[in-house]
Amino acid sequence: MFEFTKYEALGNDYIIIDPNQYDVPMTADIVRRICDRHLGVGSDGILYGPFIEGDRIRLRIFNPDGSECEKSGNGLRIFARYVYESKYVKSQTFSIHTRAGEVVANILEPKEGLIKVLMGAYTFQSEQLPMAGAPREVIQEPLELDGETLRVTCVSVGNPHCVVPLEEISRDKAFQLGPRLSSHALFPQKTNVQLMKVLDSHNIQIEIWERGAGYTLASGSSSCAAACAAHRLGLVQSPVTVHMPGGRLEIEIDRDGRISMTGTARPVAQGVFTPEFKARLRGVDEAAAYICFNASGDSGRT
Questions:
Q1: Could you tell me the residue range of the domain that residue 289 belongs to?
Q2: Which of 3, 143, 199, 267 is deepest in the core (most CB within 10 A)?
Q3: Is 9 a residue whose pLDDT tops 50?
């Protein structure tokens, strides 16, 4: 029996821990230790599920800093492929419930892992992000950052995003602006950040700084947010191809203000945690960790 499965979506990697197969107490410390790339398995986060509640499939998503997030586009494609291949569902179209609400996954090409996710509605309303100040739509709003004035468009796609259109973007620029924008006082719950360059009427390029994760090669929800911002600003038309260091996603925006995302998700590895690592996770002796983590009777041997 495998205790975890690892997938990647455009270089954004997640560990799936399925509580129906092997359960782990998801404390912030345990999440951080598992996601640590030097001392743990290493990942951009943990997908904890599925929780089967009647006809409903529920997912919890954790950032590598131990915080729980509302939604992850790449994580949802990964999870959708896992749920389908693990035969939790028979249909290629099914719903997944997250902290941000329900999304619908459609397995377009099972063998290639091409998946479309209907991500739901988006909004520019400040109170939905949330964002400090009077209720308003945050469109090209000036934001002072260390003497520099940036024009930001902020959007929620179930989680918060701050999109900054620029003529030129880079990884270095993301490291320079990302952490300061993400933790700016305007965002009481912090925010994800996208530096965006418009390539043409159907293509944009972004660099990403994720709340709770830092610099990221690719992000599904960031792609959705940046495409929505560019569309609202009149810079692009749907569909929009979003180019990131990890690859490309196609984003569609319909007339009702709903967005969908299409891209791949691929398995990387399956494995088990060693008894010694389990002991370190719990911060107790190996015997106590063995009892806690192997209530199902699994020996824990690799």
A1: 4-120+266-293
A2: 3
A3: yes
